[in-house]
Design brief:
InterPro entries: Pre-rRNA_process_TSR2 (IPR019398). Pfam families: WGG (PF10273). This is Pre-rRNA-processing protein TSR2. Keywords: rRNA processing. It is a single chain. The chain is mainly α and 130 residues long. The chain has one domain (17-110). It has helices spanning 17-31, 33-40, 48-63, 71-86, 94-109.
Length: 130
């Protein structure tokens, strides 16, 4: 009798801190109740998923720069984008919570010790849907 081994597929290897950060931001966005409701209930004037991806890319572009980014800049971007893209006023404290999760992590993700020199665009996210 021969034994059969089941080999689970290994998760994709993350190559640097920037990629880890992009995965983390995507995870935060996917669990953000206000954003999910805005998409699922059609609060936007267009494709809610596409707009959420656009917001994701805006946030990543802001946080993955070489300049110092303050938490209130992240909050402002989130507040303004929710209002203009989804016709939503975030008064539930979630914008502050999301920005507090993302902002400290961006400092680590932007560390040159974690990231080899490369383009500043979040290429690993292109073509993916929210």
């Amino acid at each position: 009798m021969s034994s059969t081994q089941v080999v689970a597929a290994a998760p994709p290897q993350v190559q640097n801190g920037r990629e880890v950060f992009q995965v983390a931001v995507r995870a935060v966005f996917s669990r953000w109740t206000l954003l999910r409701l805005a998409i699922e209930q059609g609060w936007s004037d267009g494709d809610g998923s596409a707009l959420a991806n656009e917001l994701l890319h805006r946030v990543l572009a802001l946080l993955l720069t070489d300049k110092k980014v303050y938490q209130d800049e992240v909050e402002d971007l989130l507040f303004e984008s929710l209002e203009s893209m989804f016709n939503a006023l975030a008064e539930d404290g979630s914008v502050e919570e999301v920005s507090s999760l993302l902002h400290p992590a961006s400092v680590v993700a932007g560390s040159s010790a974690l990231n080899p020199p490369q383009a500043q665009t979040p290429d690993g996210l292109r073509g993916r849907q929210f």
